[in-house]
Sequence to fold (585 residues):
Amino acid sequence: MKLMRFLRNYAGAIAVSFVLLIVSTGLGLVQPRLIELAIDKGIKVGSLTFVLIGAGGIILSALLAAGINLLSGFALIKSSQGFGYELRNALYRKVMGFSFANLDKWRTGELMVRLNSDVNTVRMFVRMGSFLIVQSVLMIIGTLVAMFMTDVGLASIMAIIMPLTLVVFAFAATFIRPLFMKARKALDDMNNTMQENLAGAKVVRAFARQEEEIRKFEERNKANYDISIEVGWKLSIFFPLFFLIGNFAVLVALWAGGTTLLGQLTDAAAAASGGLTLGKLVAFNNYAAMAMFPLLMLGLVLNFISMAIASAVRLDGVLTEKPEIEEKADARNLPRLQGSIEFRNVSFRYGSGEKALDGISFSIRAGEKVGIIGTTGSGKTSLVNLISRFYDAEDGQVLIDGINVKDLSFKTLRSRIAMVLQETVLFTGTLRENVAFGAPDASQAELEHAAGLSCALDFINEKPDAWDENIGERGAGLSGGQRQRIAIARAVAARPDIIILDDVTSSLDATTERTIVSSLYEEFYGRTAIIISQKINTIRDADRIMVMGDGHIIGIGTHDKLVEGNDTYRRICETQVVARSGGLV
Ligand SMILES: Nc1ncnc2c1ncn2[C@@H]1O[C@H](COP(=O)(O)OP(=O)(O)OP(=O)(O)O)[C@@H](O)[C@H]1O
Ligand SMILES: [Mg+2]
Fold:
C-alpha cells in the first residue's frame, strides 16, 4: 500500500521496537522453563538453591521484559504518531493543491472525516495492529517451539488445537466487527449533524427550526448511545466466552498430560528416559495458557484489518486525486502583466452539466475598465473564473497579454490578477492580517491607502482596536457591507495588474458604491479592471459593458450605445430607473 511510504522515516524506530519485542517475547517464554526447573530440580528433590534460582530468574526476566516492552512501546508510539503527522501533512498539502473543480467534487465534511477519522484508524492500526500481529505471531510460534521442546507428544496435540482455536476466535470476531463499524458510523452521523448545525446555526434560528434540529440531533445521539451500549454488553459476553474456549483447549492438553503422567511408574524413571515429568507438565500448561491470548488477539486483529484497509483506500483516494488544473512544467513567470485579455470562442461547463459558457469571444485592451451585467445564472462568474484559471475552458482559448493562460505560472495568474470573489471569505484574525492577506510585506501606509479607497478606513478606525481588531470566525464581527469592503481592500493592497470584482458591492449603499468604483478607476488608471454587477449605476461609467445572457455575450459597448441598441440592457435600465424614481435604490 502506498501509504507505507509515510513510515519510511520511522523504519529505524519500527525495527528497534520489533527487535525489542522479540527479546521480550523470548524472555516471557523462558519463565515456564524456570518454573519447571524450580519444581523438578528444586521442590521435588528438596533443593532450596534451585527453587531460589528459578524464582530469582522469573522475577529478573519479568522485570527485564517489562522494561523492554516499555521501550518498544515508546518506539512504536513515536513511529505511529510520526506516520499520522506526515500523512496529515501530505493530505493537507494535497487538498490545498485542489482546483475549484476538485473542490466541487469533495464535500467539506467528507474531507474533514478523511483527514480525521481515517487517518486515526490507519494510525491506530500501525500502532496497535502491527504490534499485536507481530507480538501474537511471535508468541504463538514461540510457545509452540517451547512446547515441542518440553514434550513432543503433548505439543503435537496443541499443534492441532491451536489453529482450530484461532479459527473459532476469528469467526467469533466477525460478529464484533460489524458492530464496531456501526458504532463508528453512528458517531460520524452524530458529528456531521452537529457540525452542519453549528455552521448554519443562524439559519436554523432564522427559520425557527431549533426544535426540529434538536430532535434530529437527539435521534443521532440516541442511535450512538444505543449502539455503544450494544457493543458494551456484547463484548462483555464475548470476552469471557473466548476465555472459556481458550481454557477448554488448555484443559484438553492438561487431561492428555495428566493421564500420561498417571500411567507412568515413577517421575524419576520418566525424567531419566526423557518422558513427561510434573515440572514439565506445569511448564507445558503455562505455555498452553500463554498461547491463548495471542490467538485471541490475532483473531480480533485479523478482523480489523479490513477496517484499516477501507480507511487506507479512502485516504489513497484523496492522495491520488488528480488536480484538474495543473501548472505546466515550463510555465512562464511574468513579473508584470500589461493587462489585455482575450477570449477566443470559449465554451465551458461544470463537470458534465449544461454549457455555462457557449462560444464566447471578446477582447479587452490593457488598462480598459469593463463592466459585466446579466441576469443571475447567465455565466458572469463562470467567465471571470477562467481568467485566472480557477477552471479551464473546455473549448477555445483564454489569452492574457496574448499568451494562453495555460502557459502562465500560477504565481503570475494569481498574484498579478486579484479577484474579489462573489462570496466574501474572511479569515479569523485581525483586520490588518485580512487586508494584508495577499500582500504580507505591505506597509501600514499602503494598507491604509487600500482601505481608504474601499471606504473601509473609517469603520476600521472606529473599532476599539482599530487595525488590530479581531474580527472573529470568518469575519463574524463585521456587517455584510464591511466584509465586502475589507475584501476589496485586500485585493487592492495586493497591487495587481488586473483586478476583478465579482458583484461585491451588492451590500453597499449607492453612494458608497459609487465612491468606491470611481476611486478604483482612478487607482487603476492604466491597469485593467473588470466589475461585475446587477446594477447599472455600478458599471455605467465603464469604458465598455458586456451584457450576458444564458452563457452568451448578447451585447457589448458603452452605456449610451447599449441603451440605444440593446433590448436587454435597456430593459434592465428601465426597471432600475423606475426603481430609483420610486426611491428604492
Ligand atoms: N460550481 C458549480 N457547479 C455546477 N454548476 C455551476 C457551478 N457554478 C455555477 N454553475 C452553473 O453555471 C451557470 C452559470 O453560473 P454563474 O455562477 O456563472 O452565473 P452568474 O452570472 O455569476 O450568476 P449570479 O449573478 O447569480 O452570480 C448556472 O446555471 C449555474 O447553475
Ligand atoms: Mg456570479
